[in-house]
Write a structure and sequence with these properties.
Its EC number is 2.3.1.286. This protein is an alpha/beta fold. It is built from nine helices and nine strands. The strands form two sheets. Strands 3-2-1-7-8-9 form a six-stranded parallel β-sheet, sandwiched between helices. The protein has a three-stranded antiparallel β-sheet with strand order 5-4-6.
Length: about 230
């Protein structure tokens, strides 16, 4: 803990790599844990796939509307402390999360690696649509096209801009902190392969993670860790 505090104090450019565990304390379930979104579901990957969106758009919409949106969720200690650090340091957050809570907490440089539920658009005319409108209907009243959230579904590629921005941030960081993720989902978990080899790396997670290079593991609840930073 003291090492992490010292590293943050000394660092010039910090990258936080965040996963589902960061948003669980805000009431948003993760995906694969015992009480996660996928628990008890027969084919959750299909429900969040490009195929489902294309073949059964109403089924896709119903699943996303009922299971993915938590508009009343508020940033927790992890989000707010990262935002505070970003006011004093050059901080980039690269997140797997699609809930917009890092932005809601006030961090300016956020790369939504898998997109955001709060950016929606019409697939027919490409017009941007608010999430509030999408939650009322998945049909765009102007052109009758199907609206979708701008998130990366199964069978879809990560946006090139997200990859390029992430790689640039990773290469220039002198401190990388992995938080609330098992760090096993590719290509997100491969980003640190492109780090500056002199960068310090810490991981904060309830379960230990394993990396093929030297790093400091803080096996603890991230909310407690960031409350003390």
């Amino acid at each position: 803990m003291n090492d992490l505090k010292g590293a943050i104090k000394q660092a010039n450019k910090i990258v936080f790599l965040t996963g589902a565990g960061v948003s669980v304390p805000s009431g948003i379930p993760d995906y694969r844990s015992k009480n996660g979104l996928y628990a008890g579901m027969e084919s959750p990957e299909y429900m969040l796939s490009h195929t489902c969106l294309t073949r059964e758009p109403d089924k896709f919409y119903q699943f996303v509307k009922e299971n993915m949106y938590y508009p009343d969720a508020e940033p927790n200690t992890i989000h707010t402390k990262m935002a505070e650090i970003s006011q004093q340091k050059d901080v980039t957050i690269i997140t797997q999360n699609i809930d917009g809570l890092h932005e809601k907490a006030g961090t300016k440089k956020v790369i939504n690696f898998h997109g955001s539920l709060y950016h929606c658009y019409c697939q027919k005319c490409q017009m941007s649509i608010s999430a509030e409108t999408y939650l009322q209907s998945n049909i765009h009243e102007d052109c009758l096209g199907i609206i979708r959230p701008d998130v990366v579904l199964y069978e879809e590629a990560i946006q090139e801009s997200a990859i390029n921005q992430s790689l640039s941030a990773i290469r220039h960081a002198d401190l990388i902190v992995i938080v609330g993720t098992s760090f096993r989902v590719s290509p997100f978990c491969n980003l640190t392969d492109y780090r500056n080899k002199t960068a310090q790396i810490f991981a904060v997670n309830k379960e230990p993670i394993f990396l093929p290079y030297s790093f400091e593991m803080i096996e603890s609840d991230a909310t407690k860790v960031f409350a003390e930073i």
